[in-house]
């Protein structure tokens, strides 16, 4: 308590010495925060509001004339076969990619944690992390050539195994799978590093106690590692789901949504409607739908995650 | 030590080694393809290994593409974006953490809320605003919307809040102005957070594809990822050319990564940023 009074005395003394200080501080806050908030306003707040308003109009940037259509854009998307399909494709893509991502990254992270040799451990982490820093657009191009029907790597491997070649990017059965493989390759590094950090933070004594109680390897993983890792898992799952919903370059570059819209995710559909078809009003309505879906999915995950924590 | 099991450890390491090799295959493919000659490709007999290794691809890249210009465009925009983001995030974070003013909570919440908004949701109005400002097909359009980062402000605020007020108070009594306080005292204290923010801001700016795709049209204005895709479109058959360009673009990225690897990994686990 004594200390506190001394400090506040000092404060007062400082204030008396410099009566203009608070005004200076205020001026600093004002002078600095204004440009920052203006930028946020211009490139974050305004676009959100504008997007909502635009979704009620029919707007083509070429004609520069907007026509108010009320909820028509929203009604239209529920009868638009392409949009409904793209919703289905988006969910399929996010679901399978997230699940395989989590399983693979958790397995690899646990495996790397077991490696005792320091340099080998670092080497593994580096190798798995390396693809995440390259531009996804470049990765998509390299993988496109690997998926090439005539002289791509995958059909070469199939040829060696005497299996008929596959149209990886234009066969409706394989196109989405191909994009998923490429996405996983490009992206697992992040979650491996995050899971490794999560595993590092589990105190050794929990394992020791469980071993004393006679737990086997599976029990350790199921009843010690998984529950104590749930915070990391929740965080990793939420960020991965959000980022896969927004996956764009791989679809735009590798498949352009083809064949038969089998790989037309919502993110690509919004882009195409807005910038290829100049249907900016309709695209804005789709963007609103996109936002609502992501928000709902995120809130649901937080809810589910929280109930698990309490056990 | 728990769980000593040499066999299992060896098996795990071996499996990891196989998986790591699989991870490296696309790189190997990229490099080998870049050395394939035009002959290899036209004859259609191109296997995994180039039959007649040549520098055809690299020669075409340097002859056909303003390669240096693309790198320059990417470098300049990414550096400006990174420097500006660090500056605005640190100062705004400082203001939100250590100053009182009217509407502080509301403004901070609004900024936080924009973190949740995917770029696809705001890209159309952002494009329209950019068009109104007359910046379409101008590198300024790449920089301008990215001068501030809501996540950066949030991170900076979290880290600056930890700094004891007494320290700032003492500096003020010694006559330090707010800006000097920021540079001399706060910046060094939050340096690890700033370097993480810097690395990931730079990487996101360098790798960004969607926004340049929307606002840039001219080949001379393009940034690296966009240029690579454009280049791919004009050299579909001769994939050795595109692979050469991809190699040239990937090598500096890998070198930079290997140098800053520790900071990368630390930054990722500290900020959870992508």
From TrEMBL, chain A:
Question: What does the UniProt keyword field contain?
Answer: Cell membrane, Membrane, Transmembrane, Transmembrane helix, Transport
List the protein's name. Sugar ABC transporter permease
PANTHER family linked: ABC TRANSPORTER PERMEASE PROTEIN (PTHR30193), INNER MEMBRANE ABC TRANSPORTER PERMEASE PROTEIN YCJO (PTHR30193:SF37)
Predominant location: membrane
Every copy of the ABC transmembrane type-1 domain together lies at: 87-301
Q: Which InterPro entries match?
A: ABC_transporter_permease, MetI-like, MetI-like_sf
Membrane topology of the entry: Multi-pass membrane protein
Q: Which residues cross the membrane?
A: 28-53, 87-111, 123-146, 174-199, 220-245, 282-302
Q: Which domain of life is it from?
A: Bacteria
Point out the coiled-coil segments of this chain.
none
What family does the entry list? Belongs to the binding-protein-dependent transport system permease family.
Source organism phylogeny: Bacteria, Bacillati, Bacillota, Bacilli, Bacillales
Q: Where in the cell is it found?
A: Cell membrane
Automatic annotation (TrEMBL), chain B:
Q: How does it sit in the membrane?
A: Multi-pass membrane protein
Q: Which Gene3D superfamilies match?
A: MetI-like
Residue ranges of every copy of the ABC transmembrane type-1 domain listed in the record: 71-260
The principal location of this protein is membrane
Which terms are listed as keywords in the entry?
A: Cell membrane, Membrane, Transmembrane, Transmembrane helix, Transport
Q: Where are the transmembrane segments?
A: 7-29, 67-94, 106-129, 135-160, 181-203, 241-260
One Pfam family assigned to this protein is BPD_transp_1
Q: Where in the cell is it found?
A: Cell membrane
**Record flagged with keyword ATP-binding:** no
PANTHER family in the record, alphabetically?
ABC TRANSPORTER PERMEASE PROTEIN MG189-RELATED, ABC TRANSPORTER PERMEASE PROTEIN MG189-RELATED-RELATED
Q: Which family, according to UniProt? A: Belongs to the binding-protein-dependent transport system permease family.
What is the name of the protein in this document? Sugar ABC transporter permease
- Lineage start: Bacteria, Bacillati, Bacillota, Bacilli, Bacillales
């Amino acid at each position: 308590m004594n200390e506190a009074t001394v400090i506040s005395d000092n404060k007062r003394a400082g204030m008396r010495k410099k009566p203009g200080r608070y005004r200076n501080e205020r001026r600093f806050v004002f002078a600095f925060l204004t440009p920052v908030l203006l930028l946020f306003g211009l490139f974050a707040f305004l676009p959100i509001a504008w997007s909502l308003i635009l979704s009620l109009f029919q707007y083509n940037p070429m004609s520069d004339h907007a026509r108010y259509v009320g909820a028509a854009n929203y009604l239209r998307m529920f009868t638009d076969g392409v949009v409904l399909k793209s919703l289905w494709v988006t969910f399929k893509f996010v679901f399978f990619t997230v699940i395989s991502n989590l399983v693979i990254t958790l397995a690899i992270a646990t495996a790397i944690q077991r490696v005792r040799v320091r340099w080998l451990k670092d080497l593994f982490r580096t190798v798995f992390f390396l693809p995440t820093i390259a531009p996804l657009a470049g990765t998509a191009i390299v993988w496109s050539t690997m998926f090439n029907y005539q002289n791509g790597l995958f059909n070469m491997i199939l040829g060696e195994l005497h299996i008929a070649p596959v149209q990886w990017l234009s066969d409706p059965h394989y196109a989405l799978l191909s994009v998923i493989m490429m996405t996983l390759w490009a992206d697992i590094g992040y979650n491996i590093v995050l899971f490794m950090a999560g595993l590092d933070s589990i105190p050794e004594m929990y394992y020791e106690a469980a071993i004393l109680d006679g737990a086997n390897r599976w029990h350790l993983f199921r009843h010690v590692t998984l529950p104590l890792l749930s915070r990391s898992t929740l965080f990793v799952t939420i960020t991965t789901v959000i980022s896969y919903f927004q996956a764009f370059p791989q679809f735009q570059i590798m498949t352009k949504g083809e064949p038969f819209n089998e790989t037309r995710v919502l993110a690509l559909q919004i882009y195409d409607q807005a910038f290829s078809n100049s249907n900016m009003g309709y695209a804005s309505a789709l963007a609103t739908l996109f936002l609502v879906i992501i928000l709902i999915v995120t809130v649901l995950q937080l809810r589910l995650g929280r109930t698990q924590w309490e056990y | 030590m728990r769980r000593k099991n040499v066999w299992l450890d060896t098996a795990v390491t071996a499996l990891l080694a196989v998986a790591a090799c699989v991870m490296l295959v696309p790189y190997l493919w990229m490099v080998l393809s870049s050395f394939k000659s035009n002959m290899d490709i036209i004859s259609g007999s191109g296997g995994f290994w180039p039959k007649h290794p040549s520098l055809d691809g690299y020669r075409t890249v340097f002859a056909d593409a303003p390669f240096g210009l693309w790198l320059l465009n990417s470098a300049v925009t990414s550096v400006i974006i990174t420097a500006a983001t660090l500056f605005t995030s640190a100062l705004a974070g400082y203001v939100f953490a250590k100053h009182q003013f009217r509407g502080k909570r509301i403004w901070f919440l609004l900024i936080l809320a924009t973190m949740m908004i995917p770029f696809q949701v705001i890209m159309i109005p952002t494009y329209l605003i950019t068009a109104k400002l007359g910046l379409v097909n101008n590198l300024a359009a790449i920089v301008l919307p990215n001068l501030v980062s809501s996540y950066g402000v949030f991170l900076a605020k979290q880290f600056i809040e930890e700094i004891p007020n007494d320290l700032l108070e003492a500096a003020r009594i010694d006559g330090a102005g707010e800006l000097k306080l920021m540079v001399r005292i706060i910046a060094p204290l939050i340096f690890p957070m700033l370097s993480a923010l810097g690395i990931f801001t730079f990487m996101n700016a360098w790798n960004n594809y969607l926004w340049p795709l929307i606002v840039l049209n001219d080949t001379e204005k393009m940034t690296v990822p966009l240029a690579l895709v454009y280049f791919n479109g004009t050299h579909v058959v001769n994939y050795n050319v595109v692979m050469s360009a991809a190699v040239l673009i990937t090598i500096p990225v890998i070198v930079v990564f290997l140098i800053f690897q520790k900071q990368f990994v630390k930054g990722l686990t500290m900020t959870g940023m992508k």
